[in-house]
Design brief:
The protein is an alpha+beta fold. The protein has helices spanning 24-30, 67-74, and strands at residues 2-7, 13-18, 50-55, 83-85, 98-102.
């Protein structure tokens, strides 16, 4: 299990244990945070699982962003340098302590 710190849109901060081998999106939804809409279920076709990656351990690199993910995020008025689609970030043990914020809804 890997600890995830999540800030929701109302500014509340929650900490929960995520299951490795699943995407960040699946872990957030499985923990009961339904404001992360994820309409496409992780097929990378809607960008409704947009998050900001606030903290990643210094020695860990997230998987590179694909062209498709980059293009979907370009459609958001709330894109930031730390933006990612949570369906494209697999949770691995090295991400223990990752902190994310659910982006505002477009």
């Amino acid at each position: 299990m890997t600890t995830i710190t999540l800030k929701t849109r109302d500014g509340s901060v929650h900490e929960f244990e995520g299951r490795e081998g699943r995407s960040l999106m699946e872990n957030i939804r499985d923990a009961g945070f339904e404001e992360l809409v994820a309409m496409c279920g992780g097929c990378m076709s809607c960008a409704t699982c947009h998050v900001y990656i606030d903290n990643v351990p210094a020695d860990v690199k997230l998987p590179p962003m694909s062209v498709d993910e980059d293009e979907l995020l370009d459609g958001s008025d709330y894109r930031q340098p730390s933006s990612r689609l949570s369906c494209q970030v697999p949770l691995v043990a090295a991400l223990r302590g990752i902190a994310v914020t659910i982006a505002p809804e477009d």
